[in-house]
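Re: your question from the hallway

Yes, I did run it. Sequences:
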Amino acid sequence: MRNICVKVSYDGAGFNGFQTQPYGRTVQGEIEKAIKKLTGETTIIIGSGRTDAGVHAQGQMFNFYTESTIPTERWAIALNTRLPKDIVIIEAYDVPEHFHARRSAKRKTYRYTIDTGKFPDVFGRQYRFHHPTPLNVDAMREGLRFLVGKHDFTSFTSIHSTKPHHVRTIYEADFVQEGPIVHMYITGNGFLYNMVRVIMGTLLWVGEGKMASSEIKSILEGRNRSLAGPTAMPHGLMLLDVEYSSEKQG
Amino acid sequence: MRNICVKVSYDGAGFNGFQTQPYGRTVQGEIEKAIKKLTGETTIIIGSGRTDAGVHAQGQMFNFYTESTIPTERWAIALNTRLPKDIVIIEAYDVPEHFHARRSAKRKTYRYTIDTGKFPDVFGRQYRFHHPTPLNVDAMREGLRFLVGKHDFTSFTSIHSTKPHHVRTIYEADFVQEGPIVHMYITGNGFLYNMVRVIMGTLLWVGEGKMASSEIKSILEGRNRSLAGPTAMPHGLMLLDVEYSSEKQG
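Structure:
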């Protein structure tokens, strides 16, 4: 049986998240329907992770098993013609049978984007959180530095997290400004439920001057969600990239 | 009575064009509703020109007359809080009573954008025309050069144009490439119905090698719509800017 790994981008605005839910349109549901139309097979795809309702992806990854003999290089175009316009498959690979899009993932990178313009850019309104009052981005960057490394991120995940332990490693994190647009990039070995959004919600307190950047350290050490800030809006968040060891192309 | 001139941006995807129509949601209709909510006045706004269904604007201009005493710098925020999210007012100015957003306009600039990537960028899909086969942009640029200057553009306007004469002046026009993205910029003293889209539809024939760039000259001289190419899709088109002489701020 073939194992196919696929890189997919989607505009999260029209979805009730990545993963199939009892109600609402989901990315997984639309992709499984397209595979069914193409191959006739009923399949369950394995995503590298969920994204919440409204969250976007430039490079989400999933894999699935199939008996189809469609050539590797034809999958992307064949699926795109059967998918709605807010999901675009970028590439497909044949991978070894043991490859698992979630368990085999080594690094994930997210970006959270804020528009600090007086009024929002209308063409970016669904991809950026509009925050028209000034932000101290240098202080936010200082706060973010405390999160790099291996830590217990209990303070920065939803109380509804179902994971048995909350230790994750952040490899890199930084802020980049382009005029009124502020991006936070964050790369780690994995992210807990709502983790990037709670980090951003807390750093917004720092950027607004409501909290010193050094308090991020004590919030992290407190291991208590109630110490951190609110969960930032989903539409500013984008799953940029998921990396695997070189086996994926194997 | 005050005459207020307003710069507005909108995402054309959700509108049946700028101008009020018997059916469908229009930019003009939404703005007039917002003015009514704010001032209580029933007014008809004067746009610098219409944009078709699906066409976007980064810098459309309009003016309207009002008895309201709202300070100049408060209009943008006051209207934005009463407008849907796909219309964003950028600035408002008090202008002399004789200022007319259409008749006083000196230069307009449009941009038409093509995504030549194998698959469309999902986040730009509503703002770029996806053309996945190769385009000879140098040949398109050569063809475009024949249109710069003062000409009768009958060949490049809809047969439904209601204008008494079709002579317009193109001041500047060029193509700019950024990776797979191709922009055409075109600045003139005014544009006829569908003019930028017919120019692009014809230049696409040139870019695809179906026509020599020099044929643009004979099509122009033929003054017959049937000589030119199809009307390109509306969603790639953006009204970038409308310029006035310095009187606007007067």
